[in-house]
Amino acid sequence: MVSLATMGDEDWEAEIIKPHISSYVPVFEKDRYSSGANGDTFNRTPASSSEMGDGSSRRDHFMRSGFASGRSLGNRDPGESNKRENTSTVGGFGVGKSFGNRGFSNNKFEEGDSSGFWRESSIDCEDNQTRNRGFSKRGGYQDGNDSEALGSSRRGGRGSFRGCRGGFGRGSPNSDYEQDEGTQRSGGIFGSRRSALSGAGNGDTFQSRSGGGSGRGGYKGLNEEVITGSGKNSWKSEAEGGESGDTQGPKVTYIPPPPPEDEDSIFAHYQTGINFDKYDTILVEVSGHDPPPAILTFEEANLCQTLNNNIAKAGYTKLTPVQKYSIPIIQGGRDLMACAQTGSGKTAAFLLPILAHMMRDGITASRFKELQEPECIIVAPTRELINQIYLEARKFSFGTCVRAVVIYGGTQLGHSIRQIVQGCNILCATPGRLMDVIGKEKIGLRQVKYLVLDEADRMLDMGFGPEMKKLISCPGMPSKEQRQTLMFSATFPEEIQRLAGEFLKSNYLFVAVGQVGGACRDVQQTILQVGQYSKREKLVEILRNIGDERTMVFVETKKKADFIATFLCQEKISTTSIHGDREQREREQALGDFRCGKCPVLVATSVAARGLDIENVQHVINFDLPSTIDEYVHRIGRTGRCGNTGRAISFFDLESDSQLAQPLVKVLSDAQQDVPAWLEEIAFSTYGPGFSGNARGNVFASVDTRKNYHGKSSLNTAGFSSTQAPNPVDDESWD
Ligand SMILES: Nc1ncnc2c1ncn2[C@@H]1O[C@H](COP(=O)(O)OP(=O)(O)OP(=O)(O)O)[C@@H](O)[C@H]1O
């Protein structure tokens, strides 16, 4: 084994390129698996940060922290000098670069040195949002190229990197259905790390899904799922094209634990905050033809007794604005695009009226069948989010015969299918897994009455959009005239609104609660100018001040998430991490540890930016700012939920973040936050004298982008001061 102290560039290259079987071995299993074949040894001597004086002890520490075998990040921050201008060196984790043996805190690394590490990671399309997007400014598209391939910190010791407690669990031939999108995330040059375990193929995410270049060309969504590309196999691609059975890559055996059955857990909820009542003052704009009036109370919704009981048990006494408007619209059978701030109750806004309809229609209890035909399909971009939606569906349908099922990638496909065949009225799914089970003819679409796209702007962008299009053109899927399509998000870029027309009836209604794309006002936003070399120090300072309050730290890449989490653990700050390169078991464990406060700091990529509703998250720190303002809005929305207050601190790096200055100023001023003078200056200098922080600009889609619509009314949520739009005209055609 080459010592880090003497390791030169070539050594790193060799070190990186050779498969590191040991990096997949849980720490507690390492003795068993390391026969010395790859030269790794696993020194179990405890190492404290003070023991990190030399390269070898540091390395040992990284190992114990679950970091990628043999790839100590050494003492350098994974620099970001090329963050904005990635040139996508494939698999470029320090290729030809040395990371070893520098001072941890004070060493800046030379421009040239940093490139190998981060060029590659800046096209981490699973977690990076829209670096290379096709759409301007918002939403966006990123090439599906995933060269992120390091298996850093997959296996962990205590503290930071947990997971894998269920053991090694790979390559088990237990099920016909084990292969899924979640197994094949790792591509590029290091794709082989998977195959090192499975002994199958090269493990390349995209190639393995493309069935050897048949043109299916898998796409990995920006946030989450690996999406099977389209091709001749079309909607059956995964079943027929080998996705589920014969592709390379290890099989996924993870079976998530069943959700709790006891009523207390099902209905566990957190308290609404002091600003909950202020929701009523937010202006709501409804556009489209003939909208039904808003309701002001749950009673007005005329829900059945069981639903009312469940609502009461969930602690809901009062509707939020998006619920006041969306519930009657959905009950009236209308299609809907609804945009409301983060944490303001969009999930119940669609679940309650759907369940009410199902109850009204006298839905029959599901029973065992090989082919299930759900009445409702809900899709969301990330596994954790769809699971959360499922738990909400389960809560509100408690005591009814409606059966909700959740399926998502990274879990054993056989398990998903077993859940489905037992009966399924509401199917909550991530897109890849949904297409899998449709392809396997476990799910039929003929009975679909409700199609819900949560985080709809994300579901329709170029990451998931093609898959969604495939879904609506699957055999059996009722046409948009025959089904009800509902879209929800806190952000809705104009480009995406236009795409949505293909999914919605032309007379759909658009509900905008407050400013479309605006940040939640209950989050106190602070922007600090922090250069990349000072970020870690600043982070530690802030976290020490915060103490044990729950904090999400967002970084831009998966590798960096590992790096920062490990660094914080070394600093004795109890931290865990979630990102797309962690196994599902690990992701769930990390989220669980964070939820329960065992690890009060969660370092995350954008995979955790949307939708997650975690009690008591008091702080969000953007260690790296995202590249789009929408992403920023979603990230900071993990705090300040449901009327509670929260704080968001963002490190603004002059070198790399100036393109965000203008939209940031806009978001801050719209949310009535202090705007630092220096930020305004940057925004001004970037965009010239025409820019005004208060100008509407083009940062948000302020309203329904249909140019002509029949009716438009602006109301506060008490339902007053309606203004009618002038002269109704024919519906804008979207097709
Ligand atoms: N009417 C209500 N009364 C009390 N609590 C509510 C009400 N509606 C929703 N909540 C709670 O508010 C929290 C946030 O709701 P939800 O997750 O649906 O927000 P969201 O608008 O979907 O947020 P995001 O944009 O981040 O996805 C949840 O804990 C939910 O149970």
UniProtKB/TrEMBL annotation:
The keyword ATP-binding applies. A motif (Q motif) lies at residues 296-324. It is found in: Cytoplasm, Perinuclear region. SUPFAM superfamilies: P-loop containing nucleoside triphosphate hydrolases. Keywords: ATP-binding, Helicase, Hydrolase, Meiosis, Nucleotide-binding, RNA-mediated gene silencing. Its main location: cytoplasm. Pfam families: DEAD (PF00270), Helicase_C (PF00271). PROSITE patterns: DEAD_ATP_HELICASE, HELICASE_ATP_BIND_1, HELICASE_CTER, Q_MOTIF. Its EC number is 3.6.4.13. Residues 77-86 have a biased composition (Basic and acidic residues). InterPro entries: DEAD/DEAH_box_helicase_dom, Helicase_ATP-bd, Helicase_C-like, P-loop_NTPase, RNA-helicase_DEAD-box_CS, RNA_helicase_DEAD_Q_motif. Residues 158-170, 210-220 have a biased composition (Gly residues). Residues 35-51, 714-726 have a biased composition (Polar residues). Residues 34-252, 714-735 are annotated as: Disordered. It comes from the Eukaryota. GO terms for biological process: flagellated sperm motility; meiotic cell cycle; regulatory ncRNA-mediated gene silencing. Found in a mRNP complex, at least composed of TDRD1, TDRD6, TDRD7 and DDX4. Interacts with RANBP9. Interacts with RANBP10. Interacts with PIWIL2 and MAEL. Interacts with BMAL1 and CLOCK. Interacts with Tex19.1 and, probably, Tex19.2. Interacts with RBM46. Belongs to the DEAD box helicase family. DDX4/VASA subfamily. This is RNA helicase. It comes from Bos taurus (Bovine). The gene is DDX4.
